[in-house]
C-alpha cells in the first residue's frame, strides 16, 4: 500500500492498554482480552474468540453519509467467555448473542459485550450488532479514516478502517470470509471484495451483494460507493475480473484504464514468480477524489487518481497485486512485521522492471544505494523494527526492497525464488513474522544469514559493501543515468509522503 491514515497515541496510553490486553488462559472462565497483544497497536483486535464469517448488511445514503447496518458475526470462543470486545466506532443500537439480547457499552473503538449466558469454549456463537450513524463525523484518537466523496464514500484504510463500517475482531491474525450487502439509491454503484453474486432493485434502492470465500483480514475488506464505470470480464486463469473507474476521472480515465486493465497480465507475471494466485477474483477501483494512496484490498486494490497524473503507471498495479500474496494471503502476525508486506511488494516492482527492460534489479539497487549518502536520515529507520509512527515510512518500502535484493545477491536467483514460493505456500491464508522468514531463508538456502538481516533490517546506518551484506562495489558509484523504471517507481512512492 501507499500512504495510510495517521498513527497514534501516547506511549503511556499504549502501555496501559497493553496491560489490559493480556489474554485470558484458554479454558478459563472470564472476559476476552480487549486487544490482540500487538505491541504497536495494543487496542487493535480482541481475545477470547475466533471469527469465521462476517455477514454485513448495510443501507447507505450518499447525500448525507447516513449508514445503517446489521452485521452478523459467526465465531468460536477460545475460552469460556463471560464477556468480549468488538472493535467498532459507530453508535450501536443493539447486540444479540446467540439470539438473546446482550448488555453492551462503548468507548472509542471498544464495544464491550456481556452475553446473558457465558459462551462455552469451542461452541458455535453468533453476534448480531445493529447500528446507525454518519461515519465521516466519527473521530477516535484523532483518526477519521472513512472517506466521504461528492457522490458516495470509500471505506479504505490501513491499519484502521473496519471499525467505521462494521464491528469486528480487527487484527490480521483473525481472518474470515465475508458476505457484504449494500443498499444504495438507484443509479449508484457499489464495489467490494470477491464476486458480485446478485443485484436487486426495490422502491428506488438497489442492493449490491458481494462475496469473498477466502480468509480475509478485516482491514482488507472494503466498499466503494459512488458513480463508477464498471467492467466485468474474464481475467487471468479464467477468474472474474472486475474493474471500476470513477465517472469523474476526466482526462485521467485513459491512463488509469491503461494501467489497471493490465491487471491480468500483472497477475500472470507475479504467479510465475510467487506461485499460484491465492484468491477467486481480480480487478481494481480508481477513485477521483478523497484519497491520495493505494491499498491492496483483497481481490480488488483501490487506487487514487493521483497515480495516473503523469500517464500510465503499472508499477503501482504490480505493487498492490504483489500484496495479494505478501500482505493479503500471508499477513503480518503483528504490525511490527510490516517489512514482509512492503519490502516484497516494492521488490516486485523491481522484478517487473527487469522483465520490461526498463532497468535491472541491480541497477535499481545501485541507484537507491548511491542516492542516499551514509548520513542520510533514510538509513536511520529500521525496516525490521520501524516503530508505530514509522510503519509506513519510505525506508520500509525502499530499504525494504533493497534488503530483498541483498538477499538475492547472497543466495542467488534460484534460492531466492525457492524461499519466496515456499513462504507463500506454507503460510497461505495465515500470518508470519520476520524471524520465521529468516529461519526459512536460512533453511532453504543452506546459508547463515545473520549478518545480512541484522545489518539491513535491524542496524541503523547504510549497510557496508561486502559479500555477507549483499552490497557490491557497483552500488557505491552513482549511475550516469538512472534506470527508466526509477521515475515511475519514485512517482509512485512519493505519494506515500504527499499528504
UniProtKB/TrEMBL annotation:
Residues 52-220 form the Aminopeptidase N-like N-terminal domain. This is Aminopeptidase N. Keywords: Hydrolase, Metal-binding, Metalloprotease, Protease, Signal, Zinc. It comes from Saccharopolyspora shandongensis. Belongs to the peptidase M1 family. GO terms for biological process: proteolysis. CDD domains: M1_APN_like (cd09603). It is an enzyme of class 3 (hydrolase). Its cofactor is Zn(2+). Pfam families: Peptidase_M1 (PF01433), Peptidase_M1_N (PF17900). It catalyses: Release of an N-terminal amino acid, Xaa-|-Yaa- from a peptide, amide or arylamide. Xaa is preferably Ala, but may be most amino acids including Pro (slow action). When a terminal hydrophobic residue is followed by a prolyl residue, the two may be released as an intact Xaa-Pro dipeptide. Residues 1-26 form the signal peptide. InterPro entries: Aminopeptidase_N-like_N, Aminopeptidase_N-like_N_sf, Peptidase_M1, Peptidase_M1_aminopeptidases, Peptidase_M1_dom, Peptidase_M4/M1_CTD_sf. GO terms for molecular function: alanyl aminopeptidase activity; metallopeptidase activity; zinc ion binding. The keyword Zinc-finger does not apply. Its EC number is 3.4.11.2. Residues 312-456 form the Peptidase M1 membrane alanine aminopeptidase domain.
Amino acid at each position: 500500500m501507499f500512504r495510510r491514515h495517521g498513527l497514534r497515541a501516547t506511549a503511556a496510553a499504549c502501555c496501559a492498554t497493553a496491560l489490559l490486553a493480556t489474554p485470558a488462559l484458554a479454558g478459563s472462565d472470564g472476559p476476552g482480552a480487549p486487544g490482540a497483544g500487538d505491541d504497536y497497536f495494543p487496542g487493535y483486535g480482541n481475545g477470547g474468540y475466533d471469527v469465521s464469517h462476517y455477514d454485513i448488511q448495510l443501507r447507505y445514503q450518499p447525500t448525507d453519509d447516513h449508514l445503517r447496518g446489521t452485521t452478523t458475526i459467526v465465531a468460536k470462543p477460545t475460552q469460556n467467555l463471560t464477556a468480549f470486545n468488538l472493535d467498532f466506532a459507530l453508535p450501536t443500537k443493539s447486540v444479540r448473542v446467540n439470539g438473546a439480547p446482550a448488555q453492551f457499552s462503548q468507548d472509542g473503538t471498544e464495544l464491550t459485550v456481556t452475553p446473558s449466558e457465558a459462551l462455552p469454549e469451542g461452541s458455535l456463537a453468533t453476534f448480531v450488532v445493529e447500528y446507525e450513524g454518519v461515519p465521516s463525523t466519527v473521530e477516535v484518537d484523532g483518526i477519521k479514516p472513512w472517506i466521504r466523496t461528492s457522490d458516495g464514500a470509500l471505506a479504505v484504510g490501513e491499519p484502521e478502517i473496519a471499525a467505521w463500517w462494521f464491528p469486528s475482531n480487527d487484527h490480521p491474525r483473525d481472518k474470515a470470509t465475508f458476505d457484504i450487502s449494500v443498499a444504495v439509491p438507484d443509479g449508484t454503484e457499489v464495489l467490494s471484495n470477491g464476486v458480485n453474486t446478485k443485484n436487486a432493485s426495490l422502491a428506488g434502492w438497489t442492493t449490491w451483494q458481494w462475496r469473498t470465500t477466502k480468509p480475509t483480514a478485516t482491514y482488507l475488506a472494503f466498499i466503494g460507493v459512488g458513480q463508477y464505470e464498471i467492467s466485468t470480464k474474464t481475467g487471468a486463469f479464467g477468474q472474474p475480473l472486475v474493474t471500476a473507474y470513477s465517472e469523474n476521472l476526466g482526462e485521467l480515465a485513459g491512463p488509469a484504464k491503461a494501467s489497471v486493465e493490465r491487471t491480468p497480465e500483472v497477475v500472470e507475471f507475479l504467479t510465475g514468480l510467487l506461485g499460484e494466485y491465492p484468491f477467486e477474483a481480480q480487478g481494481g477501483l480508481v477513485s477521483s477524489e478523497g484519497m491520495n494512496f493505494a491499498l491492496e484490498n483483497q481481490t480488488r486494490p483501490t487506487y487514487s487518481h493521483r497515480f495516473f497524473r503523469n500517464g500510465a503507471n503499472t508499477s503501482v498495479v504490480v505493487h498492490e497485486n504483489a500484496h495479494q500474496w505478501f500482505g493479503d494471503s500471508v499477513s503480518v502476525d503483528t504490525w511490527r512485521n510490516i517489512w514482509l508486506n512492503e519490502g516484497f511488494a516494492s521488490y516486485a516492482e523491481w522484478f517487473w522492471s527487469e522483465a520490461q527492460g526498463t532497468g535491472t534489479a541491480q541497477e535499481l539497487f545501485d541507484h537507491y544505494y548511491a542516492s542516499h549518502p551514509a548520513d542520510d536520515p533514510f538509513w536511520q529507520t529500521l525496516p525490521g523494527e520501524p516503530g508505530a509512527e514509522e510503519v509506513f515510512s519510505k525506508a520500509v518500502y525502499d530499504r525494504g526492497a533493497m534488503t530483498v535484493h541483498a538477499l538475492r545477491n547472497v543466495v542467488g536467483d534460484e534460492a531466492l525464488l525457492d524461499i519466496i514460493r515456499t513462504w507463500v505456500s506454507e503460510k497461505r491464508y495465515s500470518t508470519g513474522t520476520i524471524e520465521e522468514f529468516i529461519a526459512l531463508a536460512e533453511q532453504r538456502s543452506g546459508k547463515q544469514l545473520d549478518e545480512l538481516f541484522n545489518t539491513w533490517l535491524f542496524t541503523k546506518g547504510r549497510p557496508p559493501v561486502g559479500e555477507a551484506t549483499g552490497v557490491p562495489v557497483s552500488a557505491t558509484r552513482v549511475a550516469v543515468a538512472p534506470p527508466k523504471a526509477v521515475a515511475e517507481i519514485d512517482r509512485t512512492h512519493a505519494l506515500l509522503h504527499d499528504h
